[in-house]
Every structure is written in structure tokens, then in C-alpha cells.
């Protein structure tokens, strides 16, 4: 993966990093994504990626960019180019770039805790195929979504994205996680455990996770035996079995962690939470809960990612997946730059810059440069007639 501009900035940074450099580094990443394009077209991938980058950094659409700029092509040729993206090569490139960025700041000799999650991207409109759509709880006025499986690792206090995998309508969660872990296992470090939410509470999926590393996840409370084990006032370790007598039967160590809610979020009294605690049989329930709570930073990562997600109404799942990949790539680039070249070295770890925020500093800087380069229109269309006759008497 050849990233000469990024390598120069990370290994021999100047005293300052400019908005123009942020734009150049962002485009350097995006131009590694293969886009066949249209033979004989006067455009090139750089023309298209500038429009996509402006749409992502401004959380707007390709149409919003091409309509409000003077130096970009119309929407139609840009979308024609985007429709030449091929899903598998594009997805492989996005994951390869994520891996390259992550490994610039990860110690490959350390084992890592990997966090896995499912992310739903609401979909409005008519899909090209019913098989691509998943159902979710009503959000943003729809129950339709495109679903993605993501893997993260917490490093330098930040969630770095390791891999992204789409989950088609016919996919089981176990299938998606298996593909995702196949990507993560190409990283040059050992996985010591996997943290996941209650989606992991499926016999087949637990088996897939265990093939890579011991999983830790909260249990669901619908089963009578689990409700009984959670009806306690003191923490303890026990065991539980899922899918008894079936193909994917699993017996797991279960940590029951009891806490007291003293008005937290308007709640009070005893709260018991059960965790499947593979590989943590020698830990206390409180220690198991503390380990699991590390994955809470994933939500912060999603918040950042959504600040760099281009808006679209296209039914193309490939283009939508591409926009998702662009959002994660921009967030990952920001995290790497923030830690590697802007954080101040000090005893006990680097001091992260508080002013180099993702939205206000990084994305806004990219937008400013692109607006200048693309000729963002600062003028607005008038009616061409002005005041009707007889209404100008107040001007003297």
C-alpha cells in the first residue's frame, strides 16, 4: 500500500500541518480505491474523488456539491463513474487502507482485544433488490436499513477501525462475523479476546467467535434459567447452556455482576447483569464487567463516522457501501494524524490536542480547501427584476 504523502507527514512532520495537506492526504487514501471509470471520458478518478470527498466532509450529496460548484462536472457523469465501482475490489481496498492506517500506530507485537458490532444505516426509498435490505427498529422515519459488521480495537484511547463488512439480507450474523474475522486475522497481532453485544447470544455465532478468540458478551434475559440466576443480590460466577440438545449447543462460564443504582439515569435499586465470560473464569464478575465496558467507545466512533457520511438516495448498495467506507477512512486518518503528529510526547503517554477535532478542525479544513479548489458558489440567483413598479419610493 503506497502512501508517500502520508508516510512523509507521519515520519518527518513539519512544524505545522495545513488544510491543504489534510485535503491532499484524504485524496491520497481515496485514490487507492479502484474505480474503472468510463473509457473516453474527459474525467479521471481525481475529479470524481474530489466531489465525493467534498460530499463526505460536508455531509451533503454529490448533487449538492456539483450544483454549488463551478469547477466540477455535472451530477450525471459523476454518478456514471461511481456506478463503475465493483463491490469486492472496492471493499478489499477500503479494508486494506484501514489496515495500513491502523498498523501505523499499533504495536504488532502486542495482543489485542477486538470489539465487534453491527451498524444499521437507515434506508429511504425503493431498493434495487429486497434481498439487500435488513429490518431494524423504526428510526429516521423508516424500518429499512443497510447493515454493516465492523471490528474495532481500542488503542491510544481511541477506537481504530480494523475492518468493515456488509451484511446482505440473506446473510446470517454468523456468516458476516466469519467474513469479518477472516479480515482481522490477517493483521500481524494476536487476538486475546473478542467483545460483542447481545447479538453474540446465538449458538452458531458463539462457535464462530470461539474459533478466533474467547468472546465476552452480555446474555439475553428471555430464558427462565438465566432470569433465575440473575435474581440475586450478590455477584458470583456460574455456567449457562444455550441451544441444549441442538447442533450449536454451547456451555459458557457466566459472570453475574450485581451493582446498585443510586439514582443513576433515574433508576435505583439492585441491577444484575450476566456476561458470557470465556477465558475469564479466574476473574471476578466486576473485573469481567470492567473488561466488557471498554467497548463503549464504539458509539463515539459511530458518532464521528456519521459526521463524514455523504448523503445519497441511490439504490446502489455498492455506492452506499463506498460512502460508508469513505467515512471510516476519513475518521481513521484523523485519529492517526491526531496521535502521531499532533499529540505532544510526554511522560506517561502523548497529550492529545483538544483543538484538532474531527468535525470543526479536520473536516472543516478539508471543506475550506475543496471549496476554494472546486469554485464553491458564493453567489445566489436573483429574480432578475427587483422591486415591482411603484415600490421603490422609499429609496428617495
Provide structural commentary:
This protein is an alpha+beta fold and 396 residues long. 39% of the residues lie in helices and 20% in strands. It contains 13 helices and nine strands. The protein has helices at 4-11, 19-30, 45-57, 62-67, 75-82, 87-103, 173-184, 203-212, 224-229, 285-292, 297-306, 317-342, 358-374; strands at residues 112-122, 134-139, 142-155, 158-167, 191-195, 215-218, 236-242, 250-262, 268-277.
Which SSEs are present, and which pair or pack?
Layout: H1 4-11, H2 19-30, H3 45-57, H4 62-67, H5 75-82, H6 87-103, E1 112-122, E2 134-139, E3 142-155, E4 158-167, H7 173-184, E5 191-195, H8 203-212, E6 215-218, H9 224-229, E7 236-242, E8 250-262, E9 268-277, H10 285-292, H11 297-306, H12 317-342, H13 358-374
Parallel strand pairs: 1-5, 5-6
Antiparallel strand pairs: 1-3, 2-3, 3-4, 6-9, 7-8, 8-9
Protein name: IS4 transposase
User: How many extended strands?
Assistant: 9
Instruction: Write down the overall geometry.
Output: globular
Percent strand:
15-25%
The main sheet comes to: 9 strands, mixed
Give helix % range.
25-40%
Distance, first to last CA: 69 Å
Order of helical and strand elements: HHHHHHEEEEHEHEHEEEHHHH
**Low-pLDDT residue spans:** none
Mean pLDDT: 90
Quickly count the helices. 13
Organism: Natrinema hispanicum
Protein name: IS4 transposase
